[in-house]
Design a protein that fits this description.
The chain is an alpha/beta fold. The chain has 10 helices and 16 strands. Bound molecules: threonylcarbamoyladenylate (TXA) and magnesium ion. Threonylcarbamoyladenylate is lined by residues 35, 37-38, 40, 64-67, 100, 102, 114, 117, 119-121, 123, 125, 143-145, 182-183, 185, 196, 229-233.
Amino acid sequence: METKVIRVDEENIDLQLIAEAGAIIREGGLVAFPTETVYGLGGDALNAASSGKIYAAKGRPSDNPLIVHIADMKMLGKIVMEVPEAAYKLAERYWPGPLTMIFNKAECVPAQTTGGLATVAVRMPSHKVAKALIEAAGGYVAAPSANLSGRPSPTAAKYVIEDLDGRVDMIIDGGEADIGLESTIIDLTGKTPMILRPGYVTEEMLEKAIGSVDTDRTILDVDSKQAPKAPGMKYRHYAPKGNLVLVEGAAAQVVAYINEQLAWHKSRGAKTGVIATDETADGYHADCIKSVGKREDEDQIARQLFRILREFDDEEVQVIYAESFKSQGVGEAIMNRLLKAAGHQVEHLPDTE
Ligand code: TXA
Ligand code: MG
């Protein structure tokens, strides 16, 4: 299949091009598009065959449900059984934006879209190109992240092209993603709302809007034997081709420990890499040292993380060590993605300070 790549400027949207993209989705085709979190791979959410195509294009297991993207609160009622009060409160504060809510699904949402579940995940993205596309496509766009299954979510069109060229009808290049990590997912179908995936909208922000929320602990616990409630969270994600290990401890010890490990791996001929911060990057002796930014600037770290994971693949690094981050606020989402990328391999250094 020939993939058409077009460029659309968020501040000056070419409606002709968007109409063309919308028509592709309405006719059952696939269009990758920018959102403020990561790029999505869009198809008609109410068309079972379209959802089937999305799984095939990504190489994704079909029990892993898709998020339905809408552009207007008016559209929500048709695809869910009921809209709980908490959803209105959350929508008021965080929609459009990086928050996905889970509802009991209405009949019209095909089982293919929800991976066979009786619930449906819904998000209203704030990216103007996404909004225009959803409207042009008929209002309901199912979209997982636009990467091949298992690879880091794409934060720029060039990564979508890398993964999906020849597998989708169109890719819309709308520049770099603002946030860089996928949306927070909150399940509103139980007694207490539950976070299934941490993201840019933090637990604290959610609690401000709706009071106490739970977190699905299986997403952060290394040893959890239970399956996470978001089916996608059980798959090894974002994994670089090299072996990634996280190191936790005081900065000086972390640098010393990683250097020791690097020296050993180098002596055995391995190509080595480090995911560092601006504060420590100069202290490492590796073939490939990449800083995710200033330790205090979590927004920047979030924005850069997936790009850096992909770059280690491009450079064929075999052994990668990463510093770890505090697990609060956006840091929780950063650590969640890093832990998954590392297959939960973490070295905890004894606190000697
Ligand atoms: O920011 C985002 O959410 C991006 C952009 C494109 O919107 N999308 C995204 O989709 O990250 P995806 O498919 O890569 O991740 C969706 C996650 C998966 O872990 C999936 O299992 C979970 O959401 N999910 C979807 N529907 C669900 C449901 N009904 N119940 C539980 N988990 C669900
Ligand atoms: Mg994904």
